[in-house]
Amino acid sequence: MKVYFIGAGPGAADLITLRGANILGRVNMVLYAGSLVPTAMLKHCKADAELIDTAELDLEQQEACYRRAQEGDYDVARLHSGDPAIYGATAEQMRRLEALGIDYDIVPGVSSFSAAAASIKAELTKPEVSQSIILTRVSGRASAVPELESIARLAEHQATMCIFLSGPHLKKIVADLQLHYPKDTPVALVYRATWPEERSYQGTLGSVLEETKKSEWNLTTMMLVGKALGSDAQTESSLYSKDFTHIFRVVKKEKITT
Length: 258
Hints:
The longest helix is centred in the N-terminal third of the chain and has 14 residues. The chain contains seven helices and ten strands.
C-alpha cells in the first residue's frame, strides 16, 4: 500500500503530468481539495474509485482515510493543487504516514506561478535584469510568514517576485513593494490561471491600485512583479549566440583568404 501526493497543476485538467494522471487512473481512493482542485481533474480517475473531498476534513479525518486504505491494502492518491512542494501542507501528512508505517511518493506538478507567467506570455528571468525568482505570500490565519521573509524585506533584492494569494492584500503589498521597487515597475495580476474563469491585469506598481478593484481579485490571485516583465528589457542571453561556444557547439572560425 502506498500514498501518492500528486501535483494537480494550476487548474486545467490537461496540465497534470502523465505520471500523475496514470496513478489517478489505477488507485482505489482519491483525496482531493475540492476548494482548489477543479472537478474536471477527476476525469483521470478510474470509474469505481472512491473520491473524497477533503475541503471539510481536518487532518485527523484525513488520517483515518489513510488508515482505512492501509487496512484494505490499496493505494491512495492525494491530489494537491499546483505543486505539492509549494504551500501544499504535505509535510504534516507525511509525518503521520511515517508514524503509521505507510510508504509514500511525491509526483510534482505545474505551479500557479509558472502558469500565471505563461498566461501573460512572460519570461520571469532575463539577462542583466533579473536572474532570481522569489516565491512568497503574505501572512495568513493558517500560517504566518517569518519577519525576515516579509515582502518589504524581500523587495530589497528587486528580483522577480511571485506573490501567492495576493488579492485581498493588494494595498499593503503595493506599499511594501514601493519601498524598493520604482513605481514604473511592471506588475501583473492573474486570477485562477488556466481555469475557465481566468482573467489578468497588467500595469505598474504605480497604477495597479487605481486601475483594479479589490473585490474582483480574490484569494486565488497570483501577483507577479519585476523589471523582467517589461517589454523594454531586451538584453539577450549569450546561450544561443553564434559566437558562444560550449561542449555541444563549437564556433567555426572563418578562414581568412589573402
